[in-house]
Amino acid sequence: MLKTENISINFGGLKALDNVSISIKNESITALIGPNGAGKTTLFNIITGFLKPTSGKIIFENQNITNFSPNKIFKLGIVRTFQNLKIIKEVTVKENLILGLLKKELKYNYLKNFLRLDKDYRKFIDEKLDEALEFFDIADWKNKTPEESPYGVLKLLELARGYLAKPKLLLLDEPAAGLNNFEKEKMVEIIKRLNEEGVTILMVEHDMNFISSLATHVYCLNFGKIIAEGDFKSVRNNPEVLKAYLGEEDA
Fold it and tell me: Rounded distance, CA 99 to CA 66, Å?
């Protein structure tokens, strides 16, 4: 589905990514791991068009998208969620979902434009929102503001907004960060359900137990280079990974 071919990018004299090549299969769940500063977020930014590589190519569904704008990449079906939640605090959980559902159709002022829609279409959208609230198990919080909702609900809300944008490839930025064990279990369940619905997943994550519950393939980045890839167990036990990443936690 998606390939990066020898992606490199320089920031001044620093090579943030160095000939990074990964391949994401359709309907797979792939994890990208590595210590802080390894280049994971930079790679996400390149895939989504917010950064342009110094060299290399991004191929999505056999199309070179390297120089596409973020909006054009989004319209192709590559959608990203953020670790720092992009949520509007002044409106309800349900109203926040409107952004995900309408983003491909209404460019600006989503909530205001929603109120101007045809009555029947508004009803259709309202039903879609309720379905998503049930699917992501956050219906009990739909009329609460984000400030009134637990952090785990907000993480699921961010995921739900990404899903409502109809992604082919969903990029998750540390979906387990900040969650307790119960919330992590629920997040694993929801991501599996998304994948069963046909959504391909690429996630950056540090929680090894979380990754082992989900990932069919793992890449490890260190100092901008891929140092290991394979199934979770083989990458987990790779000496270079233990030295560069996992050993850091044991130190």
Answer: 26
Read off the pLDDT of each residue in 217-233 and give the average, rounded to a whole number. Answer: 96
Instruction: Report the C-alpha dihedral over residues 74, 78, 81, 87, rounded to 10 degrees.
Output: 20
- Alpha-carbon 19 to chain mean position: 22
Return the pLDDT at 114.
56
H-helix segments, 49-204: 70-76, 93-102, 110-115, 119-135, 151-164, 181-196
- List, in sequence order, every residue forming a beta bridge with 170; answer none if it has no partner: 79, 201
Q: 């994971």: which residue's tokens?
A: 40
When the pLDDT of each residue in the chain is averaged and rounded to a whole number, the result is 88
Q: In what order do the strands lie in the sheet with 29-33?
A: 78-80, 169-173, 200-204, 29-33, 217-222, 225-230
pLDDT in tens, 20-70: 999 999 999 999 999 988 999 999 999 999 999 999 999 999 999 999 999
**Three-class DSSP category at 176:** coil
Q: Which domains does the chain have, with CATH numbers?
A: 85-166 (3.40.50.300)
Q: Cβ–Cβ contacts within 10 Å for residue 119, how many?
A: 7
- Backbone phi, psi, residue 62, to 5°: 65, 20
The angle subtended at Cα 50 by Cα 45 and Cα 53, nearest 5°, is: 75
For 219, the token pair is 């890449």
Reported pTM: 0.87
